[in-house]
Design a protein that fits this description.
The protein is α+β, with helices and mostly antiparallel strands. The chain is built from 13 helices and 21 strands. Helix 5 (133-142) packs across helix 6 (162-173), helix 8 packs parallel to helix 10 and helix 11 crosses helix 12.
């Protein structure tokens, strides 16, 4: 499927005039729609009445937006558009232009009206290599489409006003010049008007957790994509998988290779499946995922995001430990959670509207850090075996050492800095010790062995194909001898001269 339109979803937060938002490319599978709805907190009953499809951006060159009350209506339209042949796509786009060219840029068109344009396109003729009224006029006369000119002598044809003739026919036909084609749209007659309820037959890919384009392992060129490749949609029974393998010329599914991978779980990417030898593990994960409720699936994706899952085995481990975590989908950021946390512990008769005007970013980040909780795209996740609403004291924020590394200021800790301690706008990376400690170590996104510390920086690093940055005498950490909190560091502009406590280093005034 190729993207036909993009929609934006929004749902108002329960206690204030702010919104959860999510975008979705259509056509989409059932699980992709579910994922976007969960990011917009549609599963939260208190916000369901606020769910809104703000905009559907079609290919439309006039920038009109399509309005609809239901995602599935728009998804049906997107599937219809995706199924059009190249010729019918030309007819549809010309028809769409003809039906909307009189509308203003801020006007909206109903999804049902657009969907009806995808039916009956076979009734519209298509003329090739006609792009002007003059060319259309010659075409009409030379093909005897107007009886008025049937008996005109050949010698007199050059005196005809072909441009006027073409303009007359174009206006009569409600015709459109579309690229090198002429499309007379008045012949459009939808054979079965869309009533808002019809849906396309469900495809196996609509409900699949994972889809793999598989083929028999090539014997010669490993980059060759065989024409015989078929899509395998998981979960699937082992018998059906092996039946597909035999159809492809392999003895079992493990002997095949895959050339493309689509996932209904955004946190699970194709490079996490190293070979078809792990297909049974992947199939089991897909089957287990579908046994979860919609809210549990949202929680699983949040846990995967929190655990920075990068392999199939780590995804399986996240599933098995799912209920070791607590999850709140009501909060979209640390400030939201801070107010939810206070409301949880305040007396039941306390008017929580007092909390709406509180701005508590620093305290909210401190609370998450002390609880070990983390913000994800889907809500707040506790630390493993932790509680989101455990009573915790008001401890001072931890201070880190200010350093220069790779030409920019950073905060350093010789222990691992948790993601929950990273304020918005900062980036956390790990240092790996080399033979000469950090002098010849590396900077990496995550380090599990030979961990030499963590750093926070204001600008992200580019790691390139190697996936790490090699340190040397010039780029290794230079300790300034000053300590500050992550929040202070995030708010500091190091491009300007500041306190005398910070000496200039490496061309920077710190």
């Amino acid at each position: 499927m190729s993207t036909q339109m993009t929609i934006e979803l929004s749902a108002e937060k329960p206690r204030k005039h702010e919104f959860y938002r999510a975008t979705l490319d259509l056509p989409a599978t059932d699980l992709q729609i579910e994922d976007a709805l969960s990011k917009a907190r549609f599963q939260n009953e208190s916000s369901k009445k606020y769910i809104d499809i703000e905009e559907a951006i079609l290919f439309d060159p006039s920038h009109l937006s399509v309005t609809a009350d239901d995602i599935h209506m728009l998804n049906y339209l997107a599937k219809r558009l995706d199924s059009l042949s190249e010729e019918d796509e030309i007819k549809f786009e010309a028809l769409y232009y003809a039906r909307t060219r009189g509308m203003k840029e801020d006007e909206q068109i109903q999804v049902g009206s657009v969907t009806n344009m995808t039916f009956g396109l076979n009734m519209i003729p298509l003329a090739v290599n006609i792009g002007t009224d003059y060319e259309l006029g010659r075409f009409v006369v030379e093909n005897d489409f107007d009886e008025r000119f049937e008996n005109v002598p050949d010698a007199a044809l050059s005196y005809l006003d072909y441009k006027s003739i073409g303009k007359e026919f174009r206006e009569r036909d409600d015709g459109v010049f579309y690229g090198k084609y002429y499309v007379p749209t008045r012949y459009h007659e939808p054979d079965n008007l869309y009533d808002g309820t019809r849906v396309l037959p469900e495809s196996p890919s609509d409900s699949a957790v994972f889809s793999l384009l598989v083929a028999k392992a090539p014997e010669d060129d490993p980059d060759e994509v065989p024409d015989s490749a078929h899509w395998l949609h998981l979960p699937e029974s082992k018998d059906e998988m092996n039946a597909l393998a035999k159809q492809l010329g392999a003895s079992q599914i493990e002997d095949c290779v895959f050339y493309d991978f689509k996932s209904g779980i955004p946190q699970f990417e194709g490079n996490m499946l190293k070979s078809m030898r792990d297909i049974n593990k992947l199939n089991e994960l897909a089957l287990n995922y579908l046994t979860l409720s919609a809210e549990e699936r949202t929680m699983f994706k949040a846990v995967m995001e929190r655990r920075h899952v990068t392999t199939l085995d780590s995804a399986i481990a996240a599933f098995r430990s799912l209920y070791d975590y607590e999850f709140s989908l009501d909060a979209g950021n640390s400030d939201d959670f801070f107010k939810e946390y206070l409301a949880h512990h305040l007396p039941t008769n306390f008017d929580t509207r007092w909390l709406d005007g509180i701005r508590s970013d620093i305290d909210a980040d401190r609370l998450l850090q002390q609880l070990g909780a983390e913000v994800t795209s889907y809500g707040i996740v506790s630390k493993q075996h932790g509680s989101l609403f455990a009573l915790t004291g008001y401890d001072e924020l931890e201070e880190y050492e200010l350093i220069e590394v790779c030409g920019q200021p950073a905060l350093f800790s010789d222990t691992r800095i948790p993601d929950s301690a990273v304020p918005e706008g900062l980036y956390r990376y790990d240092l790996r010790c080399g033979e000469d400690d950090l002098l010849d170590g590396t900077i990496e996104p995550y380090v599990y062995v030979n961990h030499g510390g963590s750093i926070l920086v204001q600008q992200p690093f580019e790691f390139g194909e190697d996936g790490y940055i090699q340190l040397d005498e010039d780029s290794s950490p230079n300790f300034i001898g000053v300590e500050m909190t992550a929040e202070e560091f995030a708010g500091r502009d190091f491009t300007e001269d500041i306190d005398d406590d910070f000496a200039p280093i490496g061309g920077m005034n710190l």
